[in-house]
């Protein structure tokens, strides 16, 4: 009887050790694999256009991974530096005028540029807040990322009744790369304290990885104000006794 219990205990410990090791190794392996794949993808795009005299692999007997990625970063940084001065802005403006005259290309260029300007703009407020809305019906809540206030024609049409509308992005689980753009009244949007990164983790894990909630001072004061009078008296007596 004791031997069987020992065998069961040993099997349980081995299983727990395996699961612990899997939790430690799997994220590291996936991260290394994705990083390595991205580096090779960048190298495959840049290295074919790199002259041999500037390619370190032409002088070395082994491959140097990451060379293409480093050159791409330096090139993009240089273009950004030139685009911030007068000559660079003139060149960019001239290039944009050429693209805007092409029927199909101008649509793709304008849409892509608008997306990148909205997402990467330093002063932008896009996707800096996470909230909850009742979806798909009342009583059930879905996690959304707050984009911006409704603007333009949409704001003129939807704000006609005096209710301010907000654009939110409803992402699916577990791959939040596609979803729905929705306009909801601000009063129907419940903002959360979690960051967008924590919201993405919550979505990808299907609710298994829940960020720790630390109530702010306003929430604590509200909870204290909602206490019954007897509970407040007990808390005061307890604090005095301490």
UniProtKB/TrEMBL annotation:
A Pfam family annotated for this chain is: DUF502
Asked if the record carries the keyword Transmembrane helix, the reply is yes
Keyword entries, A-Z? Membrane, Transmembrane, Transmembrane helix
Per its UniProt record, what InterPro entries does this chain match? COV1-like (IPR007462)
> Transmembrane segments in this chain: where?
21-42, 62-83
This protein's name: DUF502 domain-containing protein
| Species this chain originates from | Peteryoungia ipomoeae
């Amino acid at each position: 009887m004791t031997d069987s219990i020992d065998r069961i205990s040993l099997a349980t410990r081995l299983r727990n050790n395996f699961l612990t090791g899997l939790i430690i190794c799997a994220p590291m392996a996936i991260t290394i694999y994705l990083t390595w794949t991205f580096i090779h993808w960048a190298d495959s795009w840049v290295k074919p256009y790199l002259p041999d005299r500037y390619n370190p692999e032409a002088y070395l007997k082994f491959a140097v991974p990451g060379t293409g990625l480093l050159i791409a970063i330096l090139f993009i940084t240089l273009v950004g530096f030139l685009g911030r001065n007068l000559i660079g802005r003139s060149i960019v403006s001239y290039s944009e005028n050429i693209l805007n005259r092409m029927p199909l290309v101008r649509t793709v260029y304008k849409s892509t540029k608008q997306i990148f300007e909205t997402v990467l703009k330093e002063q932008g407020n896009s996707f800096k807040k996470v909230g909850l809305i009742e979806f798909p019906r009342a009583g059930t809540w879905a996690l959304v990322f707050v984009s911006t206030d409704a603007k333009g024609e949409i704001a003129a049409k939807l704000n006609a009744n005096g209710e301010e509308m907000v654009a939110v992005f409803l992402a699916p689980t577990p791959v939040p790369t596609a979803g729905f753009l929705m306009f909801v009244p601000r009063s129907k949007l419940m903002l959360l304290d979690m960051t967008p990164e924590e919201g993405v983790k919550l979505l990808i894990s299907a609710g298994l990885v829940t960020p720790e909630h630390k109530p702010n001072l306003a929430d604590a004061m509200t909870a204290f104000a909602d206490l019954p009078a007897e509970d407040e008296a007990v808390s005061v007596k307890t604090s005095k006794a301490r």
